[in-house]
Design goal:
- By secondary structure, this protein is α/β, with parallel strands linked by helices.
- It has three domains: about 1-85, Orthogonal Bundle (Arc Repressor Mutant, subunit A); about 85-160 and about 270-300, D-Maltodextrin-Binding Protein, domain 2 (3-Layer(aba) Sandwich); about 160-260, 3-Layer(aba) Sandwich (D-Maltodextrin-Binding Protein, domain 2), CATH 3.40.190.
- It is built from nine helices and 15 strands.
- The protein has helices at about 1-15, 15-25, 30-40, 60-85, 100-115, 165-170, 220-230, 240-250, 280-300; strands at about 45-50, 55, 90-95, 120-125, 140-145, 150-160, 160-165, 185-190, 195-205, 205-210, 215-220, 235-240, 250-255, 260, 270-275.
- Helix 1 packs across helix 4 (about 60-85) and helix 5 (about 100-115) crosses helix 9 (about 280-300).
- The termini are far apart.
Length: about 300
């Protein structure tokens, strides 16, 4: 029953026998046969099947909650048993946006693997949101505010941002005393595929948005950082990107009295997201615990 329940949950998650077969590394016919056996054992039809879609029956919806609890409880028990008696091992596939991956995640991986030598890590540096199930991703690290309610997430760090420029750039251009002054500057911006780009600021109860433009756009922060260091213009970047350069004097924080925001509400957070319930990978928790510990320790020393 437990094995069949796992297959059932994967079919529900992906909405397709063939997609579930691919992720489970099974033949489609084996998945179909497993569901047939489960329905026979339960004496209930779980799916309404057609060539175009796969829908749960009323009995299927009823079984879904129980199956989820069954598998979750079993996985939690197995994980607890394994953690107490077995060295962590297995694969962990991580997708992380390029700048955070290059600057924060990649540097800690060697020490993590020395601590857990039987774990194998695959890293994808991507500035796009991937489908965790379709791409077989165990853990995705994203920035902003979690939106997909079907996934679990854990906050890693708040994503405070700063408006920065090099001393050379600031010495040859107009002063930046108010957010509105940014209209006179070459602003290096994240490419959000909009006709106009605004930077948002907050001070006490006052909220301001400043229209900005410049000759460089990027979906990731690394090109903007490099351009700012070379004196090309002003950039709004996360604390975990710029703090070392600010402490060394290579970048200067502008508008210190204002709180820059990535959107009107906030800059969100950096968070790890992973699939719920079924097939829990204990290495996800191990890696997230390690990442949070190393990142927080690092950033606490970088505040200003």
């Amino acid at each position: 029953m437990l094995k069949l329940a796992r297959i059932f949950l994967k079919v529900v998650e992906l909405g397709s026998f063939s997609k579930a077969a691919k992720v489970l590394n099974m033949a489609p016919s084996s998945v179909t046969r497993a569901i047939d056996n489960l329905e026979h054992e339960l004496n209930s039809e779980l799916f309404k099947r057609s060539t175009r879609q796969l829908l749960l029956t009323d009995k299927g919806h009823f079984f879904l909650e129980g199956a989820s609890n069954l598998v979750s409880d079993c996985d939690s028990l197995l994980m607890s048993m394994a953690e107490s008696s077995k060295e962590p091992e297995g694969n962990l596939r991580i997708s992380v946006f390029e700048s955070f991956g290059r600057l924060i995640v990649c540097p800690i991986i060697p020490d993590f693997l020395k601590k857990y030598p039987k774990i194998t890590i695959e890293v994808e540096l991507e500035n796009k949101v991937l489908d965790l199930s379709a791409e077989n991703i165990d853990l995705a690290i994203r920035i902003g505010t979690p939106k997909d309610s079907s996934l679990k997430f854990r906050n890693i760090i708040p994503n405070h941002t700063f408006v920065c420029a090099s001393p050379d750039y600031l010495s040859t251009t107009a002063t930046i005393e108010q957010p509105e002054d940014l209209s006179l500057h070459n602003c290096l911006v994240l490419n959000q595929e909009r006709q106009r780009t605004y930077w948002h600021f907050k001070k006490s109860r006052r909220n301001v948005k400043a229209l900005v433009s410049g000759n460089l756009k990027s979906k990731g922060g690394t090109p903007l950082l490099e351009a700012a260091l070379c004196g090309l213009g002003v950039a709004q970047l996360s604390n975990w990107i710029v703090s070392d350069y600010v402490k060394s004097g290579l970048l200067v924080v502008c508008l210190r009295d204002w709180e820059p925001l990535l959107n009107e509400q906030s800059s969100g957070s950096v968070y790890g997201v992973y699939k719920q319930g079924i097939y829990k990978n204990p290495n996800i928790r191990l890696f997230l615990d390690y990442l949070v510990e190393k990142t927080h320790n690092k950033l606490l020393q970088r505040t200003w």
